[in-house]
């Protein structure tokens, strides 16, 4: 994982169509009162005796934690648990006990030993199988939000030789997101689009959904460039590619829901809107009627490939 990233443009090819994917002033050498120790993460990490000594030296508050993204009653829940994508298109999956970066040649996993929601930091041990960090050394992740309440993080160290040393690491300047991560930019994290994946519909047409594009493998492929989405509202807005056979350059809105067996269905309720705002305002997708609630037509079922 890099300390910080800058925006780069990545190009992907989908069925012959090309989509452009756009793609800390408050330091502590000892934890705040609410610093929360996640013992469950350390159970899977090597060097447990040394970790216990580090925690004792740092005078940590301790408590039992829940596994994965949940926590036991009374336990603190990590504020930023969730699935995200950075500006390079890389995933970041945060649970209560791990920071996971799925990648090539292999995943990078950081086992969370403690965190502070008020201090906005995580201390974690590098997994021994990580491709780009030294086994059993320690990382510190600081996070903050920009003026638009968008999450950013800075991995200010990934080479600390102890948990206490990671805790004491400085240099993450929350007032400077451009170069305040030890000279690098902070990395922006956008919540991952819930329905990303590879699917096939009931007619045998492939559907590829990424963070920034939706492609349908008709005989003449259609590509839609995602401009906005709402995981809570279950819809996305996209501009029709200029090379699409139908309504090139216009705007579409896709609503989604889940039917029996939690199978994904979608409805392209708008496909020729004049503007992004018109597409976003489109209505008529009835989630209670999958047979005819898509402007009189059935919703399209998508089966993961």
Account of the 3D structure:
There is one protein chain. By secondary structure, the protein is mostly beta strands. The protein folds into two domains: 10-191, no CATH class; 197-304, no CATH class. It is built from four helices and 19 strands. It has an eight-stranded antiparallel β-barrel. It starts with 9 loop residues before the first strand and ends with a strand.
State the helical fraction: under 10%
Number of strands: 19
Instruction: Report the order of strands and helices.
Output: EEEHHEEEEEEEHEEEEEEEEHE
Unreliable spans: 1-30, 43-70
Q: State the strand order across the main sheet.
A: 4-5-6-7-8-9-10-11
* Distance between the amino and carboxyl termini: 29 Å
In terms of structural class, how would the helical and strand content be classed?
Answer: mainly beta
| Total domain modules | 2
Mean pLDDT: 83
Note the beta-strand portion: 35-45%
Q: Rg from C-alpha positions?
A: 22 Å
Largest sheet: 8 strands, antiparallel, barrel
Query: So what's the overall shape?
Result: elongated
Number of helices: 4
């Amino acid at each position: 994982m890099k300390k910080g990233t800058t925006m780069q443009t990545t190009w992907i090819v989908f069925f012959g169509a090309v989509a452009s994917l756009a793609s800390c002033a408050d330091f502590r050498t000892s934890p705040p009162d609410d610093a929360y120790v996640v013992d469950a993460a350390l159970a899977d990490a090597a060097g447990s005796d040394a970790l216990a000594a580090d925690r004792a030296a740092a005078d940590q508050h301790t408590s039992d934690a829940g596994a994965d993204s949940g926590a036991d009653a009374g336990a603190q829940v990590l504020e930023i648990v969730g699935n995200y994508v950075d500006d390079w298109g890389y995933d970041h999956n945060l649970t209560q006990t791990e920071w996971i970066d799925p990648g090539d040649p292999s995943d990078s996993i950081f086992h969370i030993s403690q965190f502070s929601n008020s201090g906005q930091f995580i201390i974690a041990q590098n997994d021994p199988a990580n491709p780009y960090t030294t086994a059993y050394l320690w990382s510190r992740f600081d996070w903050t939000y920009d003026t638009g309440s968008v999450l950013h993080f800075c991995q200010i160290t990934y080479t600390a030789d102890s948990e206490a040393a990671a805790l004491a690491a400085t240099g993450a300047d929350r007032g400077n997101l451009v170069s305040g991560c030890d000279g690098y930019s902070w990395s922006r994290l956008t919540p991952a689009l819930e329905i990303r994946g590879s699917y096939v519909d009931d007619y045998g047409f492939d559907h590829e959904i990424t963070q920034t594009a939706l492609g349908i493998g008709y005989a003449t492929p259609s590509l839609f460039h995602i401009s906005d989405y709402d995981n809570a509202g279950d819809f996305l807005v996209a501009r029709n590619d200029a090379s699409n056979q139908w309504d090139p350059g216009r705007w579409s809105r896709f609503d989604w829901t889940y039917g029996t067996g939690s199978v994904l269905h979608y409805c392209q309720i708008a496909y020729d809107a004049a503007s992004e705002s018109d597409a976003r305002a489109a209505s008529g997708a009835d989630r209670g009627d999958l047979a005819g609630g898509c402007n009189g037509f059935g919703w399209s079922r998508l089966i993961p490939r």
